[in-house]
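Handout, section B. The chain below has 155 residues.
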Amino acid sequence: FHMGKQTNIGLTVSIVEGLPATQDQAGFEALTFVKVGQVTNVGPSGATASEVPSKPLETGVTEYFIGFIDFGNMTIDMDFDEDDAGQLLIRDAMDINDTSFGKEFSMELKYLSGTTRYFVGRFFGAPETAGGADSMVTMSTTYRINKQPVYVAAP
């Protein structure tokens, strides 16, 4: 099953506390991920580089070089489910009394096509929103990516 364009129907987000033994497909596939249920939106992610200008007076021309790389962050929204194991891991990661607090987590983003993205990072926040009339109780988290993502093409 391979396709070029695709919708996000069937997208799954799964996490596990800790890092793969190796930062590659085999390392991530050796982990036991826990699915995060009720995900309603996954925000953009991707690397950006800071710009380092060089302004030699002799030429009067600004030249740019690539500085530090920031792999960015991803916001994940979900309908709150207090019984969901994946959501519980995220809440534990933000609980200062839990051993998971501040730890790095590995993440698997899997599309219906089989295309997979693997990340390593930390969770920053897990606020709940009660909302108003005709609203679901929701939770949102920000996941800051700390290492080069691993991209695996659909089989």
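Note. Residues 94 and 101 are 5 Å apart (CA to CA). Compare this with the example in section A.
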